[in-house]
Structure formats: C-alpha cells, structure tokens
Amino acid sequence: MLGFSDLQADIASQLIRHGVEVHVFNQRSVDEILRVIRMLGGMIGCETKAAALAAELENGLDALRATAAAFPRRPRVYFEEWDEPQISGIRWVSELVGIAGGDDIFPELAACGLGKDRIITDPLEVVRRAPDIIFGSWCGKKFSARNVAARPGWHDVPAVRERELHEVKSSIILQPGPAALTDGVRELHRVIAAWAAKRG
Prior knowledge:
Elements: E1 2-4, H1 9-17, E2 23-25, H2 30-43, H3 47-68, E3 76-83, E4 86-88, H4 91-100, E5 103-104, H5 107-110, H6 124-129, E6 133-136, H7 145-149, H8 158-161, E7 165-167, H9 178-197
Parallel strand pairs: 1-2, 3-5, 3-6, 6-7
Antiparallel strand pairs: 3-4
Helix pairs in contact: 2-3, 3-9, 4-9
C-alpha cells in the first residue's frame, strides 16, 4: 500500500500491525515530488521510465520558468487552499507560483506542512500584502470569487479591484504528483502570463 503524509500515520500503523506492507511518502516540495516519482519507479522495476518522466517534468518546469523570466513584472500572488478558515498555499504550490512567474505573498507559511499552521488569522493581512492575483482552490468546494471580493476591507486589494480572482481545480494542483507539475502549473502560468501581457 502507498500512502501520503503524516495525516495517514494512524491508518498506516494499523495496516502494518495487520501485516500489510506500507510505504508512506511525505513530499512537500517540487524536488520531493520528483524524487518520489523516481523512487516509485525503482520500487516497481521501472527506473528508466520513471527517470524519463521526472526529466520530462523538470524540462517542462524549466521552460515555464524561462518564459516567466521575460515578464515585465512579477505579480504578487495569494493562493488560498480553503476559505473558512483561510489557509494559504502549501510549499509545492508556492514553488509552482514562483516557477509560473509570480511571487507568493505568504512564503513564510508555505514552509508549514500542515494546513492548521497555514491559517491566516487576520484576513486583513492579505489586504496589507496587496496581491495582484488571487487563486482559489478549495478542495471539495467550488471557489467563489464573489464571496472573496465581498470580504470586509478587501475591496481595495488590487486583485479584487482588477477582477483577477481565479479558480484552479484542486485535482490538478493540491495533489503532490505529476498533475501539479503539468496541468496545475500551466494554469497558474496562463493566468499570470495574461496579467503580465496587460502590463507589457
């Protein structure tokens, strides 16, 4: 059995006690996602294919990074994983925002692995950090740009004022695997590139 994160520690320990072979990974960064891909390939005897996939993913990220380097300006980005309470993006999401051409406004929270440690206790802190773009990816719930824009004090946030509030499906960004490094980052890049083009 394969598992992910310390959140599955109790389930994993129960399975181990029942004689089930368990491998639990805890990848939280882009580099760790790529390492797990290579590791899984080795575990199932597909080292060459896994290495090729990891290299292909790295090349794709490098291409996006190179394109983003030509943007006239990098937008300040707020990525919201959940709305009640407000939770900012995890480390691999923050890194993908950077690769796509933006700057995460909560880099200090991105390093925290658990969602409870990324709760934004003062919603007005988002206002003070003035994001140019807001991405919402509420796992299991549709993102509501209208609700975000209506938050008290948020009307002066550049992203709200300029209607730069965008949903990214959680299935392509909040799972630490290949989809985040392909479809997820490309969606971030598409929005950021469009924002940058208006300022070129």
